[in-house]
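Structure ticket #2291
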Amino acid sequence: MAKHNEMTLPPLIEQIKFYFDILARSSDAYLYFTDMKSGVTLVSDNWVSDFEMNTGAVISDMDKAWLPKIHPDDMPKYAAMQRALFVDRTTNEHYISYRAMSKSGEYVWLKCHGWLLTNKDDKPYIFAGIMTRLEHLNEADPVTGLLSKAPFAREITDALDEFRRSGVGGAIIMLGIDNFKIVNETYSRTFGDAVLKETAKEISNILPPGVMLYKLDGDEFAILLRGAGETQATKLFKAIQKCMSRQQFIDGKMYFCTMSGGTVLYPQGGRETMTLYKHAEASLDLAKQGGKNQLITFTREQYNRWMRGLAMRDTIKTSVENHCEGFALFYQPQVDARTKKLVGAEALLRWKNPKGHMVAPMEFVPILENTKMIIPLGKWIVMEALKTCKKWRETVPDFVMSVNVSYAQIKDVTFLPFVENAIAEIGVPPTALILELTESTIVSDWTFINQQFDEFRQMGVRIAMDDFGTGYSSLAYLKKLSCNVVKIDREFVKNILSSSFDRELVEYVVKLCHSMGIKVCIEGVEDDDVFIMVRDDCDADYIQGYLFGRPVSTDDFVEQYLTKLSGEPTKD
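Resolution: structure written out below.
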């Protein structure tokens, strides 16, 4: 029990202290009792301990001891409540939530409910109450210390009420950390919690005064901007992107996470709390499905697309369970940069829904990955691609098939032995297969991915890093990457004729790869001038792009490319 100050206790404090201490020991809440005549306050020992109250449990000047611990942003509402109680006397009940600094040096959320009792002359006599940490009420997130889902919903309701009174609307931004599951799986949930905590701290530090960050489920956060429109919401999101767009370290471990966002304006996007919440959630989901690291603003068209996506999940699940019905592989040719001869193809997944309509990969691929249906479907893709590869090797003996794989597939312990068995069953050499994984997927998990890559390479299967240059750690980690081929993203090619920076960057990457024995494939080549430059100036090994062929069906590939591009070397 904390040692009380050496002071003579006022009669009222002396009278109730024994019972106060007994009550305080039976509760996890913080208790306080103020004798309004003397101004002396008695607080429970857990309050003294948790907030390092150097005054002890008997405090002669509560404002002096406690006000410095209150979060600056919460001081105005705390002062307003105190004024209503003790100056204006418009209420006798004290009910407020605010943040105070604990002994750990971090702010925690508290809910305070107090009562002011008066004597027969209506003079303040006793002020007493109870204070509870909101994480104990499931209203504050125990990891980040931020208010959680229920308080956020209440703020939306309050903001809508304010709109009905004043006509002033605002914006809701829902945020989600991209690929956060990879961080948890790579290190641990404890490390993931540390990332959440650091993310909460960094975002909170750049918010405008009076704007609060909330912690929702999983890796999601939320912000409500009163009086703001789309321009202000977008500006704030870009500031958040900027503070997230760098490598960070916790306990010496590097991690990198981008942020996706969904925003909805009110009242345009809804006039009810749950409607706005659902529309913000839908916009965030679309931002993640559409490539991540971006902000999607709610529109009815976007929302309908999201609803179609939910319906599509069930349809895709049925398709996968029915032996991958409706799915097919299209193939895009890859040629030798020097000879223009066909050396292989990339197998690209296509899906036709039950109504017979082709669905864009950007719509169904994220669903496959998010639901883990990519794991069984991925095995079907490997089998179909290898069967096709075996046939085409009859025309092009060294034909190589490239197959995209997701992080979920690499993590699946059955995938590697499946690939090994599939190669043996179909009867192609392991060197006939290249597995492609996008660089943006593996940035957070190099060590694990390299271990898996090494096992495939020992088997004879080659590895390619796809979309090189779209992440943030490419050059720094290239020397550590266990791969055979680097595919440079089309973004670095489309302006290569007019941008000396793009040209020199591609040249440098190719030279760097070649110095480590890594081949380079340039994607997105669409005209002869670009082809000549990436071949002669940049010294690329392979080319993939519309100049030599678009993705087509198996039969069309045979008719259009297999014979045409496999003949004698062509000359310019």
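Closing remark: Residues 260 and 288 are 6 Å apart (CA to CA).
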